[in-house]
Amino acid sequence: MTMSTTLARCLSKKQSQFDTVRHPYSLSSMATAQAAHIPGDRLAKTVLLEDSSGYVAAVIPSTHHLKLSEICEQTGRKLSLAHEDGVREVFRDCDHGALPPVGMAYGTQTWLDDSLLTHPDVYFEAGDHQELVHMSTGQFLDLMADARRGHFAHRIM
Question: Helix (H, G, I), strand (E, B), or coil: what is residue 59?
Fold first, then answer.
């Protein structure tokens, strides 16, 4: 698989400047960072959450843990981790576990943790387990302009 069609359209619509990084197949965000030889705190990880009102995508650094209570407080919702069926439903054109951060392009409210924005550049999944999108933090902020921002992740490593 290559870059998801939805992500490619989103990047084109926003006229994003980026490059891609190929890496050996990996299944976890930390393994991806190692395989791609990039710092884990610059790799965005997308976690899909849900409640009775629908889905929320939370975007955090791969070196961080999502604090569910904090994102619930900030969103005013009673969220839990989305079931696998929900992930497949929302991110239809992505491999399981290779979710790009542009939940908005998938019709999903998206929250971005500010701790991801402390470096000059950001990497994120392109929709498969072998390619990352790489862009400056400024370009990433432009791409994520419709996302809400907060602090709901804490460093684990």
Answer: strand
Separation CA 27–CA 101 (nearest Å) = 17
Name the architecture of domain 5-155: Alpha-Beta Complex (3.90)
Q: Model confidence over 61-95: pLDDT tens digits?
A: 999 999 999 999 999 999 999 999 999 999 999 99
Beta strands in 7-150 (DSSP E): 19-22, 43-51, 54-61, 64-66, 80-81, 109-113, 121-125, 131-136, 148-150
| pTM attached to this predicted model | 0.95
Give the torsion sign (CA, 76, 80, 85, 87).
positive
- Following CA atoms 32, 37, 38, 41 in sequence, which dihedral angle do they give, to the nearest 10 degrees? 60
Instruction: Tell me the residue type at 16.
Output: S
